[in-house]
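Re: export button greyed out
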Amino acid sequence: MKIEDLEKKFQARIDAGQKIEPKDWMPEKYRKTHIRQISQHAHSEIVGMLPEGNWVTRTPTLRRKVGLLAKVQDEAGHGLYLYSAAETLGISRDEMFHQLHTGKAKYSSIFNYPTMTWADIGTIGWLVDGAAIINQVMLTRTSFGPYARAMVRICKEESFHQRQGFEMILTLCNGTEVQKAMAQDALNRWWWPSLMMFGPRDEESPNTEQSVKWKIKRKTNDELRQQFIDITVEQAKVAGLTIPDPDLKWNEERGHHDFGEIDWTEFWRVVKGNGPLNKERLKARNDAWNNGEWVRDAAMAHAEKQTQKEALKKAV
Amino acid sequence: MVTHGTVPNRVTHKLANKKIEIMSNQEFPIWEVFIRSKNGLEHRHVGSLHATDATMAMENARDVYTRREEGVSIWVVESKNITASNPENQGELFEPAKDKAYRHPTFYELPIELKHM
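Workaround output, generated via the alternate export path:
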C-alpha cells in the first residue's frame, strides 16, 4: 500500500474514534510526536519530585509528611508509567534519560521555580497539580492506547495531590495573619507560572492543529488555560485569597473570566533554560544517575550470579 | 571500564570478573506486569517495568502498581517471552470468525412462548 493510502486509512481510524496501539502502522510524525510528548511528560513527573522533596524533612506535622511522601512517591510512579508507554514506540529508557540529562528533552518549566516556603508546597498541590489534572483528564481520551491508559491511572491517583495541597492552603488561611500572608505570597509567585503550564497561545503553537487532528490533544492550550482559570477563581474565593491579576474579571458575554497578559518573555526564557533553577534541576538528575551507576551494576551482577547459581544447581 | 564511585574495593573486585563492561550501560530487562485485583477475577495486564530478575520485578511491581490495594496477586513475565500477534495479520487471524453468525445463540430462531432458553 502507498504511504498516502496508509495515512488516509490511519486518519479514518482516528476519525472513527479508534485507538492506535504500538504495533499498528502509524505515520512517522505521529510516532515522533508521541515519543517527544510522552517522554517530556515523564521527565516532568521525575523532575517534579525535586521541589517537593526539598520539604519532606521539614513538614510541620507527621500528617503532612506522610501525605507529601506519598505524593512524591506517586510522581515517581507516574514517571514510570509514562516511560513505559513511550518505550512501546521503540525508544529505550536509557535514550530518554540521556535526552533529559543532556538538556535535549524538555520537562515542564514550572519545576524550574524554587519552593521557598511551606506555603509553596500547598500551592503546588493546588495550582500545579490542578493544571496538570486539567491537561491529563483530556489526555485520558488521547488516541494512542498506552498513553491513554497511563493517564487513566495517573488521574485516579492525582486528585489526592490537589486535595492535600488545597487543604494545606486552607489551614494556612485559617491560621494567623502571618500564615495567611504566606499563602497569599505563594499564590502571587505561582499564579502566572501555573498559567504558563498550558503552553504558548494557540496562534503561537504550530503543532496544535495536527495534534488535534490526530486526537493527541482534544482541546487547545488556550481552551485548557481558560478552563483552569474559571475553576481556580472559585477555589481562591473559598480560601479567601486574591489572585494577583488586576485584569481578572467575569465576562458575562463569553461566560468565562477575562484575564491579564501573560509575560511570554519570561515563559520563553525559562523554556530555553534560563529560569531560576534549570541548571540545579539538571544537575540533580545527572548526579542521581551517575551516583546510582554502581547500584545498577551491582544489581545486574547479582542477578547474573543468581542465574549462574541456579544453572549450577540444575546441573548437579 | 566504568568507574564505580564510592564502591568499596572488595565489591569492585568481585564484580571485575563478571563481564561488568558489558553489563554497564545496559538496561535492565523489561517485564510485563499482571495484577489480580481480587480473588475471583483474572489477572489483568497493567503495564511494564525494568528489573534485573524476577525477584526485583516482583518488588518493583508491588511498589509501582499496587500502592493503593489494587491487587491480591501479581504475575511478572519478561517481555521477551511474550509472543504477540502482528496487526498486519489481523485479517487472516480474525476475519474468519466474522461470517460465522451460527456460533451465536441469536442465530437460532425460537418461538416467543419459549421463555427460558
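Helices of chain B lie at 9-16, 20-23, 54-65, 90-94. The button fix ships in the next patch.
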